[in-house]
Amino acid sequence: MPPRIRMEGLDLGYFEGRTVYDHVTGCLIWVKGSIAGDGYAYCWISRKPYYGHRLAFYLKWGRWPTEAMHSCDRKSCVAWWHIEDGTRSQNTRDAYARGRRRPKRPESMHNTHLDWPQVREIRRIRAEEGLTYREIGERFGIAQNTTRYICKGQTWKE
Ligand SMILES: [Zn+2]
């Protein structure tokens, strides 16, 4: 049942700055909000809690999923291209369960041009040259937050 809250003015941009893109898996990892006891990302809107992945599905498709499922099996992922409504596509769900399908990737994200050599260089610069995240980010054309998550090993895990 759709909640009676004001979702006007809220769009997928909501996830900007709250998530970081994982270039390896194509996941959008929730890093700024909360993680529920069951491992799923959640957030508060108008003093009500919402699962991040369900919210992502809603903001993308304009309806709430009956049963949102991750094609990537990553509970903290809110990538709407990884969220499917399980009850509406039983076949799809079965296919994922049997490992026949691979999670999709987005068509474009601002930092998809990063690769492992660049990530290692970013970490090296941070460790050896002591540049700020902002300075490193500008050098590589990525957000300050993205740089920080990389340096802290929250993304691009070796
Ligand atoms: Zn994912």
What does this molecule look like?
- By secondary structure, this protein is α+β, with helices and mostly antiparallel strands.
- It has two domains: 12-97, no CATH class; 116-151, no CATH class.
- 30% of the residues lie in helices and 16% in strands.
- The chain is built from five helices and seven strands; from the N terminus they run βββββαββαααα.
- The strands form three sheets. Strands 3-4-5 form a three-stranded antiparallel β-sheet. The chain has a two-stranded antiparallel sheet with strand order 1-2.
- Helix 4 packs across helix 5 (144-151).
- Mean pLDDT is 79; it is low at 1-5 and 107-111.
- The protein binds zinc ion.
- The site of zinc ion has 8 residues, from loops.
Key features of this structure:
158 residues, alpha+beta, three-stranded antiparallel sheet, two-stranded antiparallel sheet, 30% helix, disordered N terminus, binds zinc ion
Question: What portion of residues belong to β-strands?
Answer: 15-25%
Give the count of helical stretches.
Answer: 5
Number of strands: 7
What series of H and E elements makes up the topology? EEEEEHEEHHHH
* Ligands: zinc ion
Helix content: 25-40%
- State the shape: globular
Widest sheet: strand ordering: 3-4-5
Low-confidence stretches: 1-5, 107-111
Helix and strand composition category: alpha+beta
Radius of gyration: 17 Å
Q: Output mean pLDDT.
A: 79
Main sheet summary = 3 strands, antiparallel
Distance between the termini: 42 Å
What's the domain count?
A: 2
